[in-house]
Amino acid sequence: MKPTALITGASSGLGYEFARLYAANGYNLIVVARNEQKLQQLKEELSHVDVMVIPKDLSQPNAAQEIYQTVTDQQLHVHVLVNNAGFGLNGEFDKLALAEQQDMIQVNITALTDLSYLFLPEMKKLAKDSSHTGILNVASTAAFQPGPGMSVYYASKAYVLSFSEALHGELKGTGVHVTTLCPGATETNFFKAARGEKMKLASSAMSASVVAKQGFEGFMKKQGVVIPGRFNSVGAVAAKFLPRSLAASIAKNMNSAES
Asked: Which SUPFAM superfamilies would you find in this protein's record (predicted)?
């Protein structure tokens, strides 16, 4: 029986690349995103494996439970959960719509937590017969410091990193492993959706296919944290030793528009 990977935010960007990687490595797929048309196109492209399409908006409070129920009703078994869905917003906290920022917390934090909680018990059972069972959570290099100009986004990714590292520790010895992917700027729809196309950070974006491949390989090697790109790795390490105020000041500069 082929293992199955459930991937959120699979219609484009990193999620799309993850779907291609897992399919190429013999996984059946459950793909989740808001855009059903793009998911159906992905299903047609990856016709050499079984692909189940679940159109779902993860900003809705019951989305994770509904996804879990759909998978359970179809008697499918999730070996790998890729919590990739997420988005950011560029701007000062009190000038951005509160509802949009609440949606960000719902997608970046709550849905990720709920899906991990719901699928983890069965993963522990599946791990007895599978060497690559676990959770791949997509955080960001934003997780390593405060981010004026994208305050809620940075805070949400700090949660993802801390939560994932804690799970990684809790699950040692169970056969289930947790990898956190912390990419820097990546060539996806992120900056357009964040209304930050002119951010200085956008000019140093890495290819989504390269980032996804490093995340996938890190997961297969059972690494705890993967930071693609030498510049990003150095920056993440430096953020640990810099005064928090200085790290925040650097992030604020990178989140501002190029002059």
From this structure: NAD(P)-binding Rossmann-fold domains
What would the mean pLDDT of 77-99 be, rounded to a whole number? 97
CB atoms within 10 A of CB 89: 20
Is 22 one of the catalytic residues?
no
Rounded to an integer, what distance in angstroms lies between the CA atom of residue 45 and that of residue 172?
36
Q: Of 169, 22, 150, 162, which is closest to residue 96 (Cα–Cα)?
A: 150
| Closest of 182, 184, 181 to residue 200, by C-alpha | 184
Task: Name the residue with higher pLDDT: 65 or 257.
Answer: 65
End-to-end CA separation in angstroms for the chain: 55
- Which amino acid belongs to residue 222? K
232's tokens: 């990003």
Q: Exactly one of 22, 27, 68, 153 is catalytic; name it.
A: 153
81: tokens are 């959960």
Do 18 and 188 meet the contact criterion of CB atoms below 8 Å apart? no
Q: What domains, with CATH codes, occur in the chain?
A: 4-255 (3.40.50.720)
Which candidate, 214, 104, 124, 113, places its Cα nearest to that of 162? 113
- Local structure of residue 110 (DSSP, 8 states): I
Please say whether the beta carbons of 153 and 89 come within 8 A: yes
pLDDT bucket at 252, cuts 50 / 70 / 90: confident
Contact yes or no for 207/16 (Cβ under 8 A)? no
In the predicted model, what is the mean pLDDT of the chain? 91
- The pLDDT confidence band at residue 1, using thresholds 50, 70 and 90, is confident
